[in-house]
Amino acid sequence: MDTPTNELNRLIIACGSFHWSDPCYMALTLHAGPTTPILQFLGEPSLDFPQPYQIFGTLCHGRAQQVVDHRLLVQQKPITPERYLQLWRHAFNYPLTPHDLADRHGYRILAHFQGPEPIPPTWKNQYTRSPFATFTDFI
Question: Hey, what's the torsion of the CAs at 74, 75, 77, 78, to 10 degrees?
Fold first, then answer.
């Protein structure tokens, strides 16, 4: 059997509203690496930030199943799928902003935008519930 993944923490990043004004999130896991912790994006890395039900769908079809046969541990201990999902629900109760992620955990979210023309820094966000008023606030 392969060495199990040891999850140290789970982080939910609030990314504003992109889909019909419903809030969207980025889910990250921090797990033990060979020498230092590794931050891993949950799901496919893209700008399609999922809604909570989509993140829980990914969890139920992946990581929650891995705790059953102890391929995934939490703080080096076995855990039930129900308890594992409860930990994620708790993380959703206290989402971080991208600035919180940098201040509290030392990680920054970086995005590379490429196109024919640069986006003006004063470009106004069209989404009413976004935490970023302008593109400069986003970056």
Answer: 0
Residue 10, judged by CB atoms within 10 A of its CB (0-12, 13-18, 19+), counts as buried
- Residue matched to tokens 């509203």: 17
DSSP H or E run through 41: strand 38-41
Q: Hunting for tokens 């990581």 — which residue is that?
A: 63
Global pTM value = 0.74
Q: Give pLDDT tens digits for 7-29.
A: 999 999 987 765 556 677 888 89
| Beta strands 38-41; 5-19: pairing state | unpaired
Q: Structure tokens of 15?
A: 């990314």
